[in-house]
Task: inverse folding
């Protein structure tokens, strides 16, 4: 068990859980392995204990533990029944519940038979898909958890943000470590872009060899437990070719932010010599590649994003894009080098928009494209991402699609070097790092 004294706060997610405390729906925390779901459950337990809930009202079970490895749905029910207090509300915490066959039947039985508040985690979207969703339809609320944001990365690695007077008379922000050493914000951001946001990195420190070992463990666990093992349990189309799976992962990681169709992936892999030509051995069918890509999305390794025609006001069936859940995992897969910086920055912005509660799409405006249309409730935000706005050519390129949009919603360009002008005809040019920290 993780000591509560060592738990780092994830208040953004914890406050969401607290907001649903003692409500009927099952609280389902989803996300890639090792992004902090287990710690979030423990933070919630800590919150309950601090607010007067007795320890005997809380049942915690982690199904990655050998203690519960061979447990059936009936065993799980009896385990909880033996501990349930007849006159008190029980708080039930089930970590990696997808390892129990027919777990959804047990959750419904708990809801019917006991006065209880249920919290579960899972590392695969299949947890809430197809027939499982039917069981819990209208009876669950999903908390989607991601690796650390840049603001959380600073906190986890003990950097404190302080402002000082600048030579020009304004103020400038710096990051200070626990020893009082001062760093430029871009230096800390470069570390984030290098090591990524997996919480475990904070435990080993910003050391490349240790970080690679940790990321290798995450990668192997996702591939083996959440993709290969999942398919065996599912009893349907099996993803058995671990070599093909890795090649598709490498291809998607190398092409984040690029327009891709699933049907073209197999052909591209053949053309690049990563797969044998079909005349000799048989290239994977589009259906097969689709199944592998779907498994990667279900395990939260990659996220897909659709294109939206802004003028036609409809989603397009044509090629979308993929982003990897953690930029550190990409560096682990492809090597630590400054590749494709623009798309890597896009990757970071995409997940930050998701964290902030937006639904995100790519915007098509005539023959041009807006990196992101971010919408929620009555709010809409158009976002372009580029490394620098110092070049006139780049400015014209980034501004062009935004100037074609004739509504009054906010339009921003995020970059590491925004240039001297803060606004271009109402389109704001913002420092990307400042925007990431403006939570």
Result:
């Amino acid at each position: 068990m993780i000591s509560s004294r060592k738990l780092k706060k994830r208040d953004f997610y914890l406050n969401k859980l607290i907001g649903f405390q003692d409500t009927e729906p099952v609280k389902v925390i989803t996300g890639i392995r090792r992004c902090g779901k287990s710690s979030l459950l423990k933070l919630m337990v800590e919150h309950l204990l601090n607010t007067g809930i007795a320890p005997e009202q809380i049942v915690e079970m982690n199904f990655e533990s050998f203690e519960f490895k061979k447990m059936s749905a009936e065993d799980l029910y009896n385990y909880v029944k033996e501990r349930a207090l007849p006159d008190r509300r029980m708080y039930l915490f089930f970590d990696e519940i997808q390892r129990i066959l027919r777990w959804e039947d047990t959750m419904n039985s708990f809801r019917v038979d006991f006065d209880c508040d249920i919290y579960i985690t899972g590392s695969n979207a299949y947890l809430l898909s197809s027939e499982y969703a039917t069981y819990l339809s209208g009876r669950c609320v999903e908390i989607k958890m991601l690796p650390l944001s840049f603001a959380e990365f600073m906190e986890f690695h003990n950097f404190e943000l302080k402002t000082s007077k600048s030579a020009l008379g304004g103020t400038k922000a710096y990051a200070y470590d626990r020893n009082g050493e001062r760093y430029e914000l871009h230096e800390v951001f470069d570390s984030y872009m290098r090591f990524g946001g997996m919480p475990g990195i904070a435990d080993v420190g910003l050391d490349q060899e240790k970080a690679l070992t940790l990321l290798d463990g995450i990668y192997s666990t996702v591939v083996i437990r959440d993709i290969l093992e999942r398919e065996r349990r599912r009893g349907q189309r099996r993803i058995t070719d671990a070599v093909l799976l890795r090649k598709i992962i490498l291809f998607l990681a190398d092409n984040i932010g690029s327009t891709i169709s699933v049907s073209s992936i197999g052909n591209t892999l053949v053309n690049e010599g990563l797969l044998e030509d079909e005349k000799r051995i048989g290239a994977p069918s589009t259906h097969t590649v689709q199944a592998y890509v779907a498994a990667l999305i279900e395990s939260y390794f990659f996220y897909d994003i659709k294109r939206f025609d802004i003028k036609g006001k409809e989603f397009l069936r044509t090629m979308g894009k993929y982003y990897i859940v953690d930029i550190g995992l990409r560096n682990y897969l492809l090597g630590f080098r400054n590749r494709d910086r623009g798309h890597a920055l896009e990757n970071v912005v995409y997940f930050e928009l998701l964290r902030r509660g937006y639904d995100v799409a790519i915007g098509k405006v005539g023959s041009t494209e807006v990196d992101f249309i971010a919408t929620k409730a009555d709010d809409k935000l158009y976002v372009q991402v580029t490394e620098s706005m110092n070049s006139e050519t780049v400015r014209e390129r980034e501004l062009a699609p935004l100037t074609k949009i004739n509504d009054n919603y906010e339009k921003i360009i995020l970059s590491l070097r925004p240039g001297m002008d803060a606004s271009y005809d109402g389109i704001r040019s913002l420092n990307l790092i400042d925007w990431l920290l403006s939570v």
Remarks:
- The CA atoms of residues 294 and 323 lie 13 Å apart.
- The chain has a mean pLDDT of 88.
